[in-house]
Amino acid sequence: MSYNAKIRADAMSLNPIDDALFVKMAESLKVCQEMLRVFLRDKQLIVLENKRIFKTTEEGVNEMCEVIERNRAEARAEGRYEIVADMLRDGMNIDTVARIAKMTAEQVMAIGKKAAVL
Fold first, then answer.
1. Angle, helices 105-114/94-101, rounded to nearest 10 degrees
2. What proportions of the chain, in percent to the nearest 5, are helix, strand and coil?
């Protein structure tokens, strides 16, 4: 199964509770915004638009797939950031960390500065 097919399968396999949650979020921009603020722990989050299409249309399925992929990519990046910061905290050499993380030394240094390690 291709990666895109896996994401599509994940989107289509959401259970009825997930579906009900998405429907509720689609009914009201205000409800959607408040739920996302709680889920994402971001009190400043602003929802500009919501759509009631999700799994009922091809466009909805595609949009759900894009959201799932974007969330997975963000989670991977966050995990990578934490690993790089931990390696730097443990005193590993910037060039070694860069080689292991498949990043440039500049990227590693930027993470180190952001994590207050360098």
1. 110
2. 75, 0, 25
* CA nearest to 11, candidates 1, 19, 21: 19
* 45-69 pLDDT tens trace: 777 666 555 556 777 777 777 877 8
Collect all residues with Cβ–Cβ distance below 8 Å to 24 and sequence separation of at least 6. Answer: 31, 35
Instruction: Determine the Cα–Cα distance for residues 105 and 94; give it in Å rounded to an integer.
Output: 6
Q: Residue 30, SS3?
A: helix
Nearest to 80 by CA among 45, 110, 42: 110
- Gap between the Cα atoms of 16 and 29, Å rounded: 21
- 72-90 burial string, b = 16+ CB within 10 Å, else e? eeeeeeeeeeeebbebbee
Tell me how many helices (H) and strands (E) the chain has. Answer: 6, 0
pLDDT in tens, 38-50: 877 888 877 766 6
